[in-house]
Each structure stands twice: as C-alpha cells, then as structure tokens.
Amino acid sequence: MNVNSLLVGFDTVIAALRMVLFAVGAGMAVVAGLSYATRTRRISPFGPLARFVRGRVDPLIAPVERRVVRAGAQPASAPWWALAAVLVAGIAIISVLGFVRQQIALAAYAAGAGPGGLVRLLVSWTFGVLQLALLVRVFSSWFRISPYSPWIRWTFGLTEWLLRPLRQVLPPFGMMDLSPIAAYFVLRILEWVVGGIIG
C-alpha cells in the first residue's frame, strides 16, 4: 500500500467518524437535556418519559454524577458534564487521527527530501511531543488526575524544565497558572527559530 492510498484511507475514516461523532453528540445533547429536565422537575417526575429517563438514561450518567458530586458540584449538572465529556472525547479522537495522518504525510515528504528532510521531521516531532506533554499536563490538572499516575508522570519530566522558570517570572492570575500558556508560545517560537536555522 503506497502512502497516497493510506492518506486517502485516513481521510475517508476521519470524514465518516466526524459524521458518526456528530450524531452521537447530538443524541447525547438530547439525552442530557431530558435527564436535566427530569432531575430539575421541569417535566413531571411521574410521567412515562421521566420513568424512562430514570431507568435507562440516568444509569449511564451515574459514573459522571459520582465525579461531579465528589468535585462539589450539584448532581443536576451531571448530564451537562457527561455531554461535555462526550464532545471533548470526540474532538480528541478526530484530532489524534488528524495528527497521525499529518505525521504520515510529513514522514513521506521527509523521506523524499533526503537527510535535511529527516532532520526537519525529527525537530518537528520533538517539539510536537513537548507541546503534547504540555497539553496533557494542563488537562490532567483540570480533571484532578494524580501527577503520579503513569499516564501523567511522563509529562512532568518533559515540561518542568520550562514551566519552573516561567512560574518564577509570571505571577498567578487568580486561580490560573499562566505558565503553560507562556510555555506553549515559547515552544512555538523555539520551533520556528530552530526550523529557520536548519531550514
């Protein structure tokens, strides 16, 4: 299988998956709205629709509800958090597939461009991994995932060298730590500079 047919296959899968994930997201929005309306008694809690929601829909939302309650939020907001989780997961899946497709195209181009192309590809991959580690670290802090988790620990080794000095320069903005945003821009600038040097 040549690279062009592989890329066409990726494009087909991504296009089909976009439609499927859009349908799943739209369905989840309806389900979340019904569950929220039942929980807040905007529809009669004794009607057949409410009984259906409590029996079939709410058990699916129960794991999200437990996390929401542990975080201190109201249980009635659990359907909207479940919808947000589905949307974020869909965006992440499409983004990962698009990223893999782009890397296959870059590798094919770099292989045809000789040693200079391979060096540019390695530089691009290095900065890509650093930016990915930064994003994973930010998302894990939002969802309060332990930094000692094996899924997250690697991000600290790859990003702390940049975040620590930035934290000393940038004051916190309320409860927000601005150092990851600054680090992302620093990495983009460094990638542009290094790319220009080896270009």
Write the layout of secondary structure elements.
Blueprint: H1 3-39, H2 48-70, H3 78-112, H4 115-142, H5 153-169, H6 179-198
Descriptive notes:
With 199 residues, the chain is mainly α. It has two domains: 1-112, no CATH class; 114-199, no CATH class. Helices cover 80% and strands 0% of the residues. It contains six helices and no strands. The protein has helices at residues 3-39, 48-70, 78-112, 115-142, 153-169, 179-198. α1 packs antiparallel against α3 (78-112) and α5 packs across α6. It starts with a helix and ends with a helix. The model has no long low-confidence stretch (mean pLDDT 86).
In short:
With 199 residues, the protein is mainly alpha-helical.
Low-confidence stretches: none
What profile does the largest beta sheet have? none
What would you call the structural class?
A: mainly alpha
> Order of SSEs, N→C?
HHHHHH
Fraction of residues in β-strands: under 5%
What percent of the residues sit in helical stretches (DSSP H or I)?
Answer: over 70%
Question: How many structural domains can be distinguished in the coordinates?
Answer: 2
Evaluate the radius of gyration. 22 Å
Count of DSSP H/I helices: 6
Q: Choose one word for the global shape.
A: flat
The total of beta strands comes to 0
Cα distance spanning the termini = 31 Å
What value does the average pLDDT take? Answer: 86
